[in-house]
Each structure stands twice: as structure tokens, then as C-alpha cells.
Amino acid sequence: MSIYDTLNKEQREAVFCTEGPLLMLAGAGSGKTRSLTHRIAYLIEEKGIAPWNILAITFTNKAAQEMRERVDSLVGYGSEDIWISTFHATCSRILRRHIDLLGYDRNFTIYDASDQKSLMKEVLKEMKIDTKQFPERSVMSEISSAKNEYKSPLDYRNEYGSNYRNQRIADIYECYQKRLKENNALDFDDLLVKMVDLFQANPEVLEHYQDRFRYIMVDEYQDTNTVQFLLVSLLAKKYCNLCVVGDDDQSIYKFRGANIYNILNFEKVFPDAQVIRLEQNYRSTQNILNAANGVIANNKGRKEKKLWTENQKGELVHFKQYDTEYEEAEGVVSTINFLSMRGVEYKDMAILYRTNAQSRIFEEKLKQRNIPYAIVRGISFYDRKEIKDLMSYLKVVDSGMDDLSVKRIINVPKRGIGQTTINRLQEFAIMNQMSFLDAVFNADEIPEVARALAKLHKFADMIENFRNYSMEHEISELLEHILDVTQYRAELEAEGTDESISRLEDIEELFNDIAYYEEEEENPNLRDFLAEKDMYTLNAGIDNLEEEDNKVLLMTLHNAKGLEFNNVFLGGMEEGVFPGYGAMMSGDESEIEEERRLCYVGITRAKERLFLSSAKRRMLRGQTQYNRHSRFIDEIPSAYLDIKKNNSTHQEVKKTDRPVKYQYGAGAGKPYNLSDFKIKPAGELNYQVGDRVKHIKFGVGTVQEITKGGRDYEVSVDFDRVGRKKMFASFAKLKKVTI
DNA sequence: TTTTCCCACGACGGT
DNA sequence: CGTGGGAAAA
């Protein structure tokens, strides 16, 4: 009996199909990680492929970690030589070796979202761009999309530069890249872009990695974007042993440039590709799976799939509408308590939500009841202010090339070097083509900062002192020294607030981290430490979550992808929350479809029980909002749904005569009525085809088509700025404009 | 010039 | 509700 006997026919087929391109269409819970890990084992143990010839790319670190563990337990010797990592980590690792070929220094810094934002602000200021007209947020997302499509500033200009706005964005893009390079920094998107640049400019490097990675596997292929596609294509070009795995129904990263056509057109790009479908679900009960199928069936243009399971029917999917978000949280937590008393372990329960903001109330209620919990990615450890501060100190000691780090610490803790001084130093630095830190060191030559000279000298001396100190001390000693000299710790200790105490704890955690690094590493040194930790910038999620920790997990739906739990609580099932306000207002049906896929992902996380909940009334944007329950609730066939009463004295609209097994929540409050909140039909439209209309977000456009669909009108409009959009009249709130 | 405080504004998701 | 930017206060 071999390990492969436990696989089903299709899974085995996928495992044994090792040569040439292979597309695995794997539905939710169909055992795709299992197939992938067995495939790796098969390559090594049966086909005699060297572990280091295998590259497995996942989307998140969590997924990479999990795959690593499962491969480890399957493959005996040499499994640590297999590259299993995310796109970004793979790129980072390879670029650390070769990026000098692109004119960067090999100890480059990776900018996270907030670093990017600061840099963009500076760029806009330097270029004297009106941030009302070009909000940094939208400029950044524009640039990010360009990068995801592998478009350089020049490409962007050539392709879109026909109007003034895009020309300016091309200017900003160009300047932003220039500044990144001067800082010897890459942003997240750059990691991928520079990697492709590297391979295209250096065929010999590419070939080296082609020979190295003869067998390539890509997980979550439906979420890859164009650069990632290019990257994979380049790497796989020589041997063509490329296996991609995905499910178009679980594509939830369109907003980040995911190109669904990568998976839909795989067979066209690789004509000799084999296609294998995994359609048996091993995870969920029939009721849960049927609910999920019912929801996703509302999307158009998907690859038709027939997911089935041999599992039991199980309980119905529970849904309850509460009065407020507090009662919702209360209800969920008391159900958790109830289940726990019935012997369900905390770690078998998870609370999922659409937006991070929703986590707070759940957290509060869990605390009140002393239920152990962990939030997956509240703020990642390395995102925290104090950690970023201290890491910046370390970076500056190692190399002063990254201006952002220097600016971050120059006045932290406060030492009387303010914005004006910083601006003048920056000007001088740009004028003389030097780094910001060099400007600080040469402050004597800048008459404008004469006033702050003494303070600047002190700062410069301090950095010098740290650098000397670091020559003959370990990293932990250096950090201790920094905390001491800067009084960083003393200040926090003096504060004595809850917040400062938690910051101090974080600092201790950083020491643990360093200690661990120094123990593990043969030759620990500051530069390698920083390079390794910059990877953690990329490390979202559960890194420090112990497997044996018995805790309720809280996370966003996006974070839950690829995970499974016996009991899933999905909160905030309300129009405007899920689907989100933005998706609804965009008038773009494809955005609703993405939300629906996200809902599908959420439902299919559950193995045994699924609890959906909503609140009638919720604080949103500082205001109380009244939201109808989510349309996705309506899309679950009622045969699989059990709607809980809410202390109702009112009539029920959807009656269920099924036994209620788990009465959860003691939510008081008004009854609900599912038909109360149906969308009002648009009634008469005050515009017709050919009219000029105005949309709140898209601006002015011409109505092309109006069709009556169900209870609403579907209107198709050609917008001057953004092109053609299809939308529902009742949401779009189009106003006729008279010319 | 720096720091503090207050008001306006803006919201999804994550490598 | 939280953050960020700008004006008043030190």
C-alpha cells in the first residue's frame, strides 16, 4: 500500500502527470494541497527528481508554511531543499543575489504600504502636484496596476498618455521609481517587476534558474496577475514542467490586479496542456456545500463545475439577524461558549468577516467572556510603530541609503528636529545628489539649518557612535545600546499607559526574535538579519500562532482563503458591508461577482457548522446605518437554511419547520422581517437612451442602453472618463444633465 | 520652529 | 471611529 492509494482517481492522475503543462481545476475542499504535496513527494521518491529542482509557489506565507509542513511529513530526506514560498518571497530571495545587475545594491529595502505612501507624498510635494486633483491613494493604485501589468513609466506614457491626467501620472510614476532607486528600495510590486526585468536583461541568469527549477507548481493560479504570469512563463519556458492549480470561483484578488484569464486561457497559452478537474469535496457537509453552490451559481461566465460530496447532510446553515452589531457579537460569542461547553475546542471555531474593522467588537466580547482568541493579522508585528522605529534605527546603522528610515528616526524620540529642518536637508540632498543622511552629516555647509546645527550634530554623532558600537557587539547588544542612548525605552516606561506597556512588550518580542536569529545562524550579522526580517514585511498572518494553541481565530475572509474550520461564524451579512458599499455603488456587476466569490470562499471554509449573522443597525463611518441583510443570504436555497428568530413578536417571512438544534444568542430587540428591506424598484427613470447623465463616481456619460431586468432597470452608460459601465438604476442614482 | 490640538475627511481586501 | 493635515499655542 503506497501513500498514493489514499488519493482518488483524479488526484492520482494529477500526481502522476509530472511532465509538461498541467492545469488542475480544483474546487473548494477538493484536496488540492493534498494532491500538490503528494505530487512533490512522487517527483522526488518515484521519479528521482532532486528536491532543489522543484519550486512550489503559493500566494500567502500561511499557505507556504502549511505546504512545507505537509511535504516534510511526506518526504523524508532533503525536503528542506525544495523551494516552497510565495511569489514575493521567491523574488526577494533571488533579487538579493542578483539585483546589482540592475544597478541596485544587494541590501535593498522593501517598502511596505505605509512606506510607499510616505514616499509618494514626498514625490507629489516635490513635483508640486495638487493632491486634491491627484490623491496619493488613487495615484498609487494606478501605478500599482501599471506594475501589475508589467508596464514601465514609459510604457504607461505611450499607452495612456493621450490625456493630461495620465501624462501627469506617468510623470509621477517616473519620479516615484527614481526615488525608490535612490533609496535603494523596492515596493511590493517592484519585487515581481524587477525580477522579470532581471531575467529579460540577463538570459544567463534566467537560464540558471530555469535549470534549477525544472518542476514548477503554482497554487491559487486564479489570483495571479500579469507579471506573475510572465515570471512563471519565463521560468518554465525551457522545460515546460509547469503545474498550475486553481479555481476560478475563488478568484478574490481582482482589486490587486489578478488576471482571471491566466487560468481561463491556460490551455490556449499551453496548447498541449493536460486538464484535470477535482470535483469531489472532502471538507464540508452536504448542506454547506449546497448553500455555497446556490450562491456561486448566481455568477455568470464561470467554468461550470459540479462539486459533490459523500459527506453527511449535517446541520442546516444557520442565519440570524440581530438588532445591532453588539448583539451580533454577543450572540456569536455566546454560541461559541455554548459549543465549547458541548465539547467543541476553541481552535475548531473561527470568526470571519469582510473588513478588519469588524474584528474589534468580537474581540471585546471574547475578552469579556475570557475566551482565548487570536486575530490573524490585526497589525502584523513588523508594521507596529515601535518595531518600525527600532528596525529603522538598525537599518540606518547598517546603511544610510534609505532616506525614509533616516527621516523616521531623526526626531524619534523627539529631539527638536522639526519638519522645516527636514525639508531643508532634503532640498540640499537633492541639489547635491546625495542621500538624506549625507546631508545630515554635511549640515555645516547648509546655512538654512544653522539653527538646528547643534541638534543635527548630536544626531550624526549618535549614529556614528552606533555604527562603531555595532562593529564589536552583537545585534541584541546594539539594540539595547540604542534603546539606552535614545531613551526610547525610558520614555515608554515613563508613560505607563496600557498602550505603552504593550509597546514595551513588543520590544521584548523583538529581542526574542533577535536572540532566536543569533542562535540559529552560523554567522549572525546585522545586514543578513535585516534582509531576513524584510521578508517578514511580506509575512502576513499567523507566524507566531502555535498549532497547539487552543484559540478561536478571527480573520478577514481574504485571510481565510485556503483554511478550513469545523465551525465558521460569518458576521456582517449585510448589504453595504458584504457586499461592500463600494462594490454596490460602482454599478459594476463584476464587482458584485467578486464579492460573491468571496462569500463562496467564506461558506466553503466550514466543515461542520456554518453560522451566518447580520445586524439591522450598525455604526459605520461614524454613523448608524440601517442595512438590509445581504443578498447572498437570499441566494442560499431555503432548503439548506435555518433562519433563527430574534425574540420575535412579529411574523416570520421565511418559515422553517425544521428542528432548531442550536439556539444561539439571547439577542433582545425588535423582530425582523426579511421582506422589509427589499430594494425599491427604480420606477420611472427620468432619462432615456441618448441622454447625458451624471454618476457620483464616474462623472458624466451618455446612456447607451436600458434593459428591464427583474425588479430593476439595467443601464449601460458610456462615461467620458472611465468608459462603458453597466449598472442597476436603483443603485447608480444617475442624474440627467442638461447640456 | 516645534508641538499640540482640533477639525475634516474618508472608509474593503493584502503581498 | 481613526487618521492626517493644518492652524494655534508654546
TrEMBL record:
Family annotation (Pfam families): PcrA_UvrD_tudor (PF21196), UvrD-helicase (PF00580), UvrD_C (PF13361)
Residues that hold ATP according to the record: A26, G27, A28, G29, S30, G31, K32, T33
Assigned keywords, A-Z: ATP-binding, DNA-binding, Helicase, Hydrolase, Isomerase, Nucleotide-binding
NCBIfam families reported in the protein's UniProt record: pcrA
GO molecular function ontology, one term from the record: ATP hydrolysis activity
Domain called UvrD-like helicase ATP-binding: residue spans: 5-285
Name this polypeptide is given: ATP-dependent DNA helicase
GO cellular component: cytosol; DNA helicase complex
Source species: Anaerobutyricum hallii
EC numbers on record: 5.6.2.4
InterPro entries: ATP-dep_DNA_helicase_PcrA (IPR005751), DExx_box_DNA_helicase_dom_sf (IPR013986), DNA_helicase_UvrD-like_C (IPR014017), DNA_helicase_UvrD/REP (IPR000212), P-loop_NTPase (IPR027417), UvrD-like_ATP-bd (IPR014016)
Catalytic function, reaction form: ATP + H2O = ADP + phosphate + H(+); Couples ATP hydrolysis with the unwinding of duplex DNA by translocating in the 3'-5' direction
Domain UvrD-like helicase C-terminal: 286-562
Protein family according to the UniProt entry: Belongs to the helicase family. UvrD subfamily.
Biological process, per Gene Ontology: DNA replication; recombinational repair; response to radiation
